[in-house]
Amino acid sequence: xxxxxxxxxxxxxxxxxxxxxxxxxxxxxxxxxxxxxxxxxxxxxxxxxxxxxxxxxxxxxxxxxxxxxxxxxxxxxxxxxxxxxxxxxxxxxxxxxxxxxxxxxxxxxxxxxxxxxxxxxxxxxxxxxxxxxxxxxxxxxxxxxxxxxxxxxxxxxxxxxxxxxxxxxxxxxxxxxxxxxxxxxxxxxxxxxxxxxxxxxxxxxxxxxxxxxxxxxxxxxxxxxxxxxxxxxxxxxxxxxxxxxx
Length: 246
What we know:
The chain is mostly helical and 246 residues long. It has one domain.
């Protein structure tokens, strides 16, 4: 895998997917990256299919063990056939026809657990709420998948800004954009500016720069997962629908 891909292993792009299926020295790192990006959407699909949260988590772990690992799902991924998430959602749909496998999930669990899921828990991320209840499985899957793209892009933006010593711009973006998108409200400049020690005009200017960089990162993430421009337009539309519905 190239150095640029190793620097972007949180992306579910086709280079990472191919590497995960290759048996190379970096394949396990790539596999962990793809699972980390994919499992919240898998959970959302299963949860929206009518399972309890604990049952949905069991089935999600079983799916990862049986399909990602045992059946080597990524070896079936083909960039020329379209979006990776199309393959993933089909695999989850088919897997639920075999729910008896859940009884054996514990015995198939890799030694040490599944790092993609454990990492989420360690960082305090929660995807086991009831936001999927009442949605169709497909809608829940797509909403969570798109939310993961936003999360990954946001984490990239945070790393870039903080490494440049610009934690102020990250805090502005977090409070004014992410908080508004995912929690329904945004902190006003009157509250933010005194806390950050800058005036409201500077807040607005720095936020605009951060938002432009975020938009560029988001497009990089999206282009890395597809080759058809029509798919890119659809993905952007999905992102906008998610944000507008929050």
